[in-house]
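Course assignment 3, question 2. Fill in each field.
Student: A.L.
Task: Predict the tertiary structure for the chain below.
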Amino acid sequence: MPAGIAEVPGAPLGDADEAARVRSGASRGTAPAVLERLASDPSVTVRAAVALNPATPPTADEILAADTDERVRVLLARKLATSVPLLGASDQARLCEQAYQTLMNLVADEAVRVRATIAEMIKDLPNVPPALVLRLARDATSVVSVPILRFSPLLESEDLLALLADPPHGGTASTIARRAFVPAAVAEAIAASSDNQAIQILLENPRAQIREATLDALIARAEGKPRWHAPLVRRPALTAKAARALAEIVATDLLGELTRRADLPVEAITLLRQRLAARIGAPEKPGAAEVPPDLEAALAWARARNAETRLDESLLLAYVRNGDIFRCIAILAVAAEVPASLIERARRLRHAKGLVSLVWKSGFSMQVAVLLQTLLCDLPPTSLLSPKPGGGFPLTAEEMHWQIDFLSHIVV
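Answer field:
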């Protein structure tokens, strides 16, 4: 470091060359008074070095915040934004307040790059001043406000609702709809709007808390909005009522997706499969005129049928291929002499080994077990329990007895 700069704060700067002044401006050991004078140096490189120096006093930062070169202000903004979580922890409260005020001045900077730099640096920090976050969230330039609107954990429901009511720009609702967590009140406000794109994004967000009544209202509006259909069909925790309403408006492939959901009641799945069969012109199910209205009726039918003539595999296969979940469960339960709740339990757990074991106990083949894993457990081909070479069951008799006992005692 050249003599006269660090050691003698009053020395004239003209006596040192630019490289020396840059080194002095970048050094943490340079006296605060010297750094304050270097903040007004004719060389932008020197001023940039001072802007980056963590030891630069707030008075010098204040000078740099008004620098004529945007690049200097960007560097200063990055430094201050990086240190902003520590401002409240310092014992030098007055200096901290000065640094915070300088940062607030930069948030109002006319250069977008300056404001965007601050937004990017603090977007996901949990311990920055809320006023700073709100100022950036209300910025009319999307490159500044979007990172805050999308990621900041400091925006409460009330803040988000206020931003939706008076949006800083056209993409506000869509950005808020992409947040990692969207509270129910905020989701309701977006759903009540006329912003179709934001609503689609909201529906695609599995972390958006959409109330049942809100979802029903969106389904009622969705018939002429095909872009909503797939995210509606794939919403988590879809009710049977919502699924039935969607079955009336969605395309056949999406109706097929509905029938493969594992979280819907058996009754709803059966009705959806009947709707799908009618849609694609499939032949009527065996005994369609007497389709049982619920599982209890299906069990009564299976017991009566078994009393007349043994329930054979060809009958079960007919109902498997037609997607009649009620009768498939009933046939298995009666043939295996187990409560239907065991089969329902295997279905809810998507427990392939348990279901295969119940098929074995029923006296049916592994061919049936493969088909039922798809129908009842909605398992993809890669997750199916496959037969041994020759078509036999892949589990030992001892293991299958254990699996059935496991299903009998587990609580779900």
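Instructor remarks: Residues 67 and 176 are 34 Å apart (CA to CA). The chain has 25 helices and no strands.
Grade: pending
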